[in-house]
Amino acid sequence: MAGPAALLVSIRHQAGALRTLQAATAPHPPCSTPHPSHTQTFSTGKSGPAWHSLGEEIELSEPGGAQELEEERKAPQKSPKEGEESGDLSRLSPGEPRPERLARPGLARHETLRETALRSKMSRLVEATSRLVQVEETLLLPLLQQHPLPLHPKDSIEFRNICSRMALQREGQQFERDLHEAHQCLKAIIEKLICSLAVVPSDSYIPIRSALRQILQNFLAM
After folding, report:
1. Residue 14 and residue 163: Cα distance in Å, rounded?
2. Cα–Cα distance, 141 to 216 (Å, whole number)
3. Does position 106 have pLDDT exceeding 80, yes or no?
4. Which residues form a coiled coil (predicted)?
5. How far apart are CA 159 and CA 154, in angstroms?
6. Is residue 147 a contact partner of residue 176, using CB atoms and an 8 Å limit?
7. pTM above 0.70, yes or no
8. How would you classify the pairing of strands 59-60 and 40-41?
9. What is the DSSP letter of 203?
10. Rounded to whole angstroms, how far apart are CA atoms 31 and 111?
11. pLDDT tens per residue across span 38-93
């Protein structure tokens, strides 16, 4: 039988795993807008942004850019048929599927569904871990002074180790295997805790068992 000390060890490792999971699921900070390096803007005599006669901004990357721009404007434009024969994709509208997408229409959709499933699985893991720690801290820990329980801190240590591996590699087959293993480990922690509470002849643990069963039910059903 174990008292509050063993539960505190378990809670500490579960809370560490929770922080790791939350950091792994946090969105990346947006990239800063790149500053123009060699682009120069020439003004036509007006203050502020440079504008030409049509009110459009002119940007030249090198001294000979103005002459090249004028030659491109005078050059004959390709007909749509010529653009298609040459394989030019620039004339396709942004929403029009590219040939490589037409060749493999299910690829992009499959990847999107896979990423969505992984995010959902991570969210379920974070939610269940958070609720478990809350129940242990607020409901279970005060009662262990009177009724010690057979606890299993080693499962919580293993759970934290798995989450630490996941934080180092956030994608790929190894990440998916670790995510599945983390789900199984947390499920075992909750089930063993419910079994430990069931052998204690005290009505004080009934609300805690109900709370743990609810966590497990939501965790498996989502």
Report:
1. 10
2. 19
3. no
4. none
5. 9
6. no
7. no
8. antiparallel
9. G
10. 23
11. 444 434 444 444 334 334 443 434 445 545 545 555 555 555 455 444 455 445 55
